[in-house]
Write a structure and sequence with these properties.
With 327 residues, this protein is α/β, with parallel strands linked by helices. Helices cover 31% and strands 27% of the residues. Helix 4 packs parallel to helix 5 and helix 7 packs across helix 9. Its EC number is 1.1.1.179.
Length: 327
């Protein structure tokens, strides 16, 4: 739905013309419900169709690398769901394939295209807190109740750090504007499969050795959804907070600033467009108009994000997600 609804209501230059799935009957039912004119029996048929310009890959994480590369080699632009791959090595291979093909490869971190998160970054860059940046705390937690959900399956690239966690990793990197090293990481393993993290907590510091630190907390077993940003300055009371930075077009979309001098202001982003529509618009601009600057979450950024995720898993004493060929 990250593509279908925005294409219908927000981005007229994009048309969803075909889908493919392992279960053709389900694909046909889905296509009928959403007005998609064509259904292919296989993924190969879809990516090699001459009338299709771009492919959206919403497969399990473990399948992102294979089908992204195949789509790029077939001459298609690719919008790939996050995380872009199972591990950093796969992401690097995908980035090389994108470079060779000359096509766009974009990771679908939709929140990055919304004015709320961009405003938070602007407040940091302009020293709106009247105090140097010292700490960024990003949290994303909710509950996945079904034990059969693919997000709990190791072989499909499951785990909280691969789902909610990839957002938090991307967010702290964006807000701080630097790459990060791991200070410590602690995982809560899933009872039925200790390879899968139910939740993850990671303390980070900048690679450059600056005094800026970060904390990310992520979970797929939180009965109370939590999506928040808390930024602190060197001064004890300087602070920036943001609620629901992930999907501010839905509800709870304020950014609050408290300066070192005690002044407090709040901005609401209620009237802003959906994160998905803004992301799809950027993808269309890059592919149709060759405006590569519109892509804020490109293949290079995806590689850096996967490197951080792999490092967090390693620090927490857990295995990184294996490539399918390694299993």
């Amino acid at each position: 739905m990250a593509v279908i609804n925005p294409a219908k209501t927000e981005v007229p230059t994009v048309e969803v013309t075909a889908i493919a799935a392992r279960d053709v009957a389900r694909a046909r039912s889905f296509a009928k419900k959403h007005g998609i004119p064509r259904v292919f029996d296989t993924y190969d048929q879809l990516i090699h169709d001459a009338d299709i310009d771009a492919i959206y890959i919403g497969l399990p994480n473990s399948h992102h690398c294979e089908w992204t590369i195949k789509a790029l080699q077939a001459g298609k632009h690719v919008l790939c769901e996050k995380p872009i791959s199972n591990n950093a090595q796969e992401a690097e291979t995908m980035a090389v394939a994108a470079e060779k093909s000359g096509k766009v490869l974009m990771e679908a971190f939709h929140y990055r295209y919304h004015p709320l998160i961009q405003r938070v970054r602007e407040l940091i860059l302009t020293n709106a807190m009247e105090s140097p940046l010292r700490h960024v705390h990003v949290k994303f937690a909710f509950a996945v109740f079904s034990s059969n959900d693919i997000r709990w399956q190791y072989d499909l690239g499951g785990g909280s750090m691969m789902d909610t966690g990839c957002y938090t990793a991307n967010c702290v990197r964006y807000l701080i504007g630097e790459e990060l090293d791991i200070v410590s990481a602690t995982a809560t393993p899933l009872r039925k499969d200790g390879r899968v993290d139910q939740s993850m907590r990671a303390e980070l510091q900048t690679t450059s050795g600056s005094s800026v630190t970060a904390l990310i907390e992520t979970s797929m077993w939180s009965l109370i959804p939590r999506i928040s940003i808390d930024i602190r300055g060197a001064n004890g009371q300087a602070q920036i907070t943001a609620t629901n930075w992930l999907a501010p077009h839905v509800v709870y979309n304020n950014v609050t600033l408290k300066t070192a001098s005690g002044k407090k202001t709040s901005e609401s982003f209620t009237k802003a467009r959906s994160t998905y529509g803004l992301m799809l618009e950027a993808f269309a601009d890059a592919t149709l108009n060759n405006n590569r600057a519109a892509i804020l979450t490109d293949a290079h950024d995806a590689v850096l994000n996967m490197r951080l995720i792999d490092s967090i898993y390693t620090s927490a004493g857990m295995s990184i997600r294996e490539s399918r060929a390694e299993k």
